[in-house]
Amino acid sequence: MLRAVNLHCGYGCVEVLGGVNLEAREGEVLALIGPNGTGKTTLLHTLGRLLPAQRGEVRLGGRALRGMRSREVARMLALAPQRAPHSAWPLAVAEAVALGRAPHRGWLLPLTAADQAAVDAAMARMRVAALAGRTLSTLSGGELRRVILARALAQAPRVLLLDEPATYLDLQHQAELLALVRSLARDDGLAVVLTMHDLSLAALCADRVALLAPGGLRVTGTPAEVLREEILRPVYGERLEVFAHPASGSPVVLPLAER
């Protein structure tokens, strides 16, 4: 559904990542992992056309992303950033979520019944319906994060890009988010790409993980294949350990404390 082909991305003439070949498939969660500064958000923004590719290309549904009209892309792909660019605007939550319908109705036309149903469903799914009348500036960080995700869901995309979606969320809401992400892929058939710092959370929600290292993509595979000490230590440093969770068997990655 979404593919990077020999993708080079960065800012201006500064290359952050080079030669990336990566595919996000329908019905699958792909987690982009790597230390700070390795280009996870840069890659995500290039996949979502917020940043132009320096070389190579991104393909969406088999077509070159750069040749598609913005509205056409927005009907297929939604990106939920870490922060809402309009969070300081005097918008109510319901109004902010309704912005996700713009690719389907335009900016100035009123919501149709179908639009309103999509907005209501997205707010219910992210459990922000009770906040519908609140302005964005009054929300906590966790509440705002869920509103950002609700807006992306209201867009009804086939590809969903999430930048650090667990940011500001407590443990209960992290668990709910992970369940939602997996449901969007497995039940709704979306291709979901997300960036994550927490490798153990990535192992719980992702079907595949892509490990970024300075300069490029190091390896892609299942969490069990990639989250191994011999693979992670050259990238993250020696002071970490990996073990299998006793109940789920999922890889758990922890730093080794100084003694």
Automatic annotation (TrEMBL):
<dbReference type="InterPro" id="IPR003439">
    <property type="entry name" value="ABC_transporter-like_ATP-bd"/>
</dbReference>
<keyword id="KW-1278">Translocase</keyword>
<keyword id="KW-0067">ATP-binding</keyword>
<dbReference type="InterPro" id="IPR027417">
    <property type="entry name" value="P-loop_NTPase"/>
</dbReference>
<dbReference type="InterPro" id="IPR017871">
    <property type="entry name" value="ABC_transporter-like_CS"/>
</dbReference>
<dbReference type="Pfam" id="PF00005">
    <property type="entry name" value="ABC_tran"/>
</dbReference>
<keyword id="KW-0547">Nucleotide-binding</keyword>
<feature type="domain" description="ABC transporter">
    <location>
        <begin position="2"/>
        <end position="239"/>
    </location>
</feature>
<protein>
    <recommendedName>
        <fullName>ABC transporter domain-containing protein</fullName>
    </recommendedName>
</protein>
<dbReference type="InterPro" id="IPR003593">
    <property type="entry name" value="AAA+_ATPase"/>
</dbReference>
<dbReference type="GO" id="GO:0016887">
    <property type="term" value="F:ATP hydrolysis activity"/>
</dbReference>
<comment type="function">
    <text>Part of the ABC transporter complex HmuTUV involved in hemin import. Responsible for energy coupling to the transport system.</text>
</comment>
<dbReference type="GO" id="GO:0005524">
    <property type="term" value="F:ATP binding"/>
</dbReference>
<keyword id="KW-0813">Transport</keyword>
